[in-house]
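Shipment paperwork, digital attachment
Item: protein structure file
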Amino acid sequence: MSKDAIEIVRGSGNVYRDFAVSDADVKQLKAILAAEIIKALDKEGLSVRKAHAHTGIAAADFSRIRNADLDRFTVDRLMTIINRLGSRVEVSVRVRRPARRRARAEPGSVSP
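Attachment content:
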């Protein structure tokens, strides 16, 4: 083993947020939707051309999705593509508020 200590940091589950990328939650959602599209294509054995013939969506769009070039896509567009492939998207929303530091101790609490 090396003499240098290795620091292990637990991620948030969103790599974009961990690296302070703007619109981290949207980028994470797009990546998840793209992965589902790729799974559907692979499951059905569809090439980008066959996917185009099956859905009417441009083959170039499927190529972009396979290459994770998602900047041109909206979340809505990716959901539409999944629907055209015969799958459905179920969305669940959970809002988490950031924990706030308390400026003063609550009654009955002990300060360290």
